[in-house]
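From the shared-data thread, chain only:
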Amino acid sequence: MFAPRFGLDKPANFEGHWHLYVAASLEDLGRQAGRPSGEVDVLLSAARAKLLALRAPRVRPARDEKVLTSWNALMIRGMAIAARALGQDELGESAGRALDFIRGTLWRDGRLLATSMAGRAHLNAYLDDYVYLVDAVLELQQLRFAGDELEFARQLLEAVLEHFPDREAGGFFFTSADHEALIHRSKVFGDDATPSGNGIAARVLLRMGHLLGEPRYLTAAERTLRAAWPALGEHPQAHVALLDALEELLHPPEIVILRGAAPAIEGWRRELARPFAPRRLVLAILADAPDLPRALADKAPRAGRSAMSAAAAPAPHRWTPWRRCSPSCVRTACRHERDSGQQLDVAADGGGVDGERALGGEAQQVMRPSGLGSGAREALAAEWLHPDHRTDHVAVHVRVAHRQRAEHVPGNALEAAVNPRVSPKPVLRIASSTCASSPLR
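Structure, as tokens:
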């Protein structure tokens, strides 16, 4: 039974010998032998155990035991994304342990080391090590927010800006300024087996710049893309990481900040993680979280205004899109009446409503600010969805980034006075205040 299962009853398939492979299913073997497939599986398991015992005395192939910072960062990022998409918390826990190891072993005196083996960490880290790790930390924050980890990501970027930049032409060198002397200090824009360090650097600088309100990061990202532009124009297919960053420069990502009690914001975080939205950054931060960056600390819940009756009930949610309450509404807070009779409101601080668009067969609100000062505009295309069941109050903030040219959004819009010089990153808030505008029809 073992021979037909693994192809040993067929001609040799590798240089006169057999390379084992599954040649027949358990069901086919059971029918041929007149036995149930479960019994066939037991017999084959016993045969595999005997074969393993015969192979055990052989010298095993050597395994590379090094822990590489960059490769671990790629794995942390992938596991964090998989944990959100699949709802498997153990993947996130594994990613968190890997990050803790890097912080405890490979981060020393404000600098990162590239490798660790048998308790010895050494070698100055390269650009890829730093920016891959920032990317991994940002993905992990969307799974479970930790202020100290976000601060770690900020410190990594500060080290990149200090030790790696090409201050004349823009972009970043692969090695740090205090690296050992080399014949040539390379600056790589193209992707290889792993993404371009400059491409990932530009993208995480953009995301952290918007998230923390840090213009230096945004400037460094733009200079990187300008430096890479000739290569992008000639061979775009070889610079995918930079193209991703360019897209986010032209169309800034959605950043959703959830503030409130743990059960409520965790329910929202899980629901927002369901759709595939790679350009959305969702951070669920406890209302009493300490030591937050100023740009996040000022997104705290505000009594009577910035709380939203949302849902994190154990029952499955039926999601419903936000809609414009009335074609003629121009207020900054508009009451929406739902089928259940529940009233929810949208308050716009520095933003407007301009039409609806279809997404997945349902109407999706498209919010754009209008009436901005000269030389700046903002763009936001966010899915405003809420479940049917009422829960604890949750503050939901969406930050949008300024664009580089002025544009007035025509048509029916929710007008608001925005001064970009005073508020460089206006915030659209879903709130529970009421107004006397027309209800949703």
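Residues 215-234 form the longest helix (20 residues).
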